[in-house]
Amino acid sequence: MTTTSTRHGAASDAAGTGGLRLLDVSLTLGDGEAAVTALDHVALDVTPGEFVAVVGPSGSGKSSLLAVAGGLQRPTSGQVHLAGTELTALSDKERTAARRRHIGFVFQQSNLLASLTVREQLLLPLHIDGRLDAAARARAEELLEAVGLSHRRGHRPHQLSGGERQRAGLARALMTSPAVLLVDEPTSALDRVRSAEAVRLIAEQTHAHGTATVMVTHDTAIMDAADRVHEMVDGRLS
Ligand SMILES: Nc1ncnc2c1ncn2[C@@H]1O[C@H](COP(=O)(O)OP(=O)(O)OP(=O)(O)O)[C@@H](O)[C@H]1O
Known about the structure:
4-stranded antiparallel β-sheet
């Protein structure tokens, strides 16, 4: 792990090779006197197979960074390139399609569907895409094993602990081996051992599948697994 400044114009071009690139991205939230600069001229390149952690105090703009990088929120200015496509140049409909195709999100709240079992949550995105085959089922079993939920595969969200729900959300995001993985405090409901395991799994999958991964966290203990650590302060990334 190294702490570095943002690499503007680095030799590897994340935009050209399918990673994630933010170019001079700013985001203002609210109006008039209540306006807040959530992101202030942020530049970030994450190449395929690279695991970047972003740390910073509460309110520094970490969630805003993920929302803009993942196309959930349009920046006020600047560009976001994702898997070779300029996300900021797309219509809302195209942006939603690009997000579904290329991005995996892991939110603090796992956003699991109440009526589905853990195993079904993992299989659903592939079912929707018509890609639910034997390999997908085998990958689901592998990931359930990796997050320690094999014995809970038939449980529904209300039958799980907060930590188990969080691990199910992580396994679901990894199911499609997305080009870009955006992770918000993946370990807030996990104990130290489970946190280390979850972050190790994210690192391993990032490297194995050539994913460009950004993880925001308060937890300095889990940063060691990242290839690079950036700090966010008042909307600026360094
Ligand atoms: N809808 C909004 N209108 C105005 N300001 C907002 C809005 N949403 C967030 N903010 C402000 O934008 C800044 C960045 O918020 P953001 O949620 O990105 O920070 P964060 O680093 O993720 O915080 P935390 O670690 O507490 O989740 C904060 O100062 C926040 O108060």
